[in-house]
């Protein structure tokens, strides 16, 4: 199965966009891990045409809050329909099992005893200051954490969470995560 782990950073906030719809934001950078090549890569907004062929070969997109945030935002730029590609939103899986949303940082701290290296609002400030290398480092670290959480969950059928001084385990049913669906091809590639 060809899997892509991904994360998006934006140029602006919901408040600046005057909306709560992710599609009203603008992408600064998309970070990915491609299981086929075993490589990380990143794409600025003006480089997204290089990303499309990679996503079109994917059988599954993996992210954290990706069904609600990343896919709708990225789909605004894409000439096809990314919702036709199977997606695995780890936050959605956690919420379905645990009953509420949990921050990526809390799950990373609980599972790996290490947190994120920043937060999304910092990435927006970096964008405004032209600090692309900081955005790239931060985004790709979030992709790495998401990839490691995915692999941990598949192996253990759970993740761990730390909130304050409390650690707990969240059981996950990973049995259907790898059911292959129809081809991801959305027919935007030239033939």
Describe the structure.
The protein has one domain (3-171): Nucleotidyltransferase, domain 5, CATH 3.30.420.10. The protein contains seven helices and seven strands. It has helices at residues 14-17, 48-56, 66-77, 90-98, 104-112, 120-128, 132-156; strands at residues 3-10, 27-34, 39-44, 60-63, 86-89, 158-163, 166-171. The two termini are 23 Å apart.
Descriptors:
Nucleotidyltransferase, domain 5; 191 residues
Topology:
Elements: E1 3-10, H1 14-17, E2 27-34, E3 39-44, H2 48-56, E4 60-63, H3 66-77, E5 86-89, H4 90-98, H5 104-112, H6 120-128, H7 132-156, E6 158-163, E7 166-171
Parallel strand pairs: 1-4, 4-5
Antiparallel strand pairs: 1-2, 2-3, 6-7
Helix pairs in contact: 5-7, 6-7
Number of domains: 1
The biggest sheet, with number of strands, parallel, antiparallel or mixed sense and barrel status, is:
5 strands, mixed
In the predicted model, the low-confidence regions spanning at least 5 consecutive residues are none
- CATH class descriptor: Alpha Beta
CATH superfamily: Ribonuclease H-like superfamily/Ribonuclease H
Q: Portion of residues in helices? A: 40-55%
- Tally of strands: 7
Beta-strand portion reads 15-25%
CATH architecture: 2-Layer Sandwich
Please state the structural category.
alpha/beta
N-to-C SSE series? EHEEHEHEHHHHEE
What is the 3D shape?
globular
Task: Give Rg in angstroms.
Answer: 16 Å
Question: Termini separation (Å)?
Answer: 23 Å
Strand sequence of the main sheet, in spatial order?
Answer: 3-2-1-4-5
**CATH fold assignment:** Nucleotidyltransferase, domain 5
Count the helices. How many?
A: 7
């Amino acid at each position: 199965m060809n899997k892509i782990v991904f994360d998006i950073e934006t140029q602006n906030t919901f408040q600046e966009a005057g909306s709560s719809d992710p599609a009203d934001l603008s992408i600064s950078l998309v970070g990915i891990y491609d299981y086929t090549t075993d490589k990380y890569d990143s794409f600025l907004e003006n480089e997204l045409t290089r990303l499309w062929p990679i996503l079109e070969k994917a059988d599954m997109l993996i992210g954290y809050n990706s069904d609600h945030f990343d896919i709708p935002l990225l789909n605004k730029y894409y000439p096809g329909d990314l919702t036709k590609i199977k997606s695995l939103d780890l936050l959605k899986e956690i919420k379905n099992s645990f009953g509420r949303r949990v921050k990526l940082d809390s799950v990373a701290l609980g599972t790996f005893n290490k947190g994120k290296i920043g937060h999304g609002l910092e990435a927006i400030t970096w964008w405004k200051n032209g600090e692309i290398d900081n955005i790239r480092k931060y985004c790709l670290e979030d992709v790495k954490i998401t990839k490691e959480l995915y692999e941990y969950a598949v192996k253990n059928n759970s993740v761990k969470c730390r909130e304050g001084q409390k650690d707990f385990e969240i059981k996950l049913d990973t049995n259907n995560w790898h059911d292959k669906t129809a081809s991801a091809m959305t027919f935007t590639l030239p033939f």
